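On clarity, I found the account of how folds are encoded harder to follow than it need be. Since the whole study asks how a given chain folds, the encoding of that fold should be made plain. For the editor and my fellow referees, an illustration may be useful. An entry of this sort, consisting of the sequence and the corresponding backbone structure tokens, reads as follows:

:::
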Amino acid sequence: MVLLFHYLSILNIFDAFITYFGLENSYIQEMNPLMNRIYEADPALFIILKLAFSLCLYLFIFLKKVPSSSLIKGLTVFATSFYTLIFFLHCYWLIVLI
């Protein structure tokens, strides 16, 4: 689980900046309605919130409080898989558009 938390955190950091770049240059659109509103209100807040999520994951790791229930494991695996797909989709779009 710790490895998945590391991976998810790093993936989120990269995705934050790739998404920000794509949004700033009108290459992509944010499909998450909540994150889209946050980005439209303040792009810096968008980045801060994304980085705060990664920080929260790292706090679980550093404090040795990573949950180990089967529900959390399943959700983490699902989130990691889905987020990996979204990350590569954003990268693909930006490569094709640039």
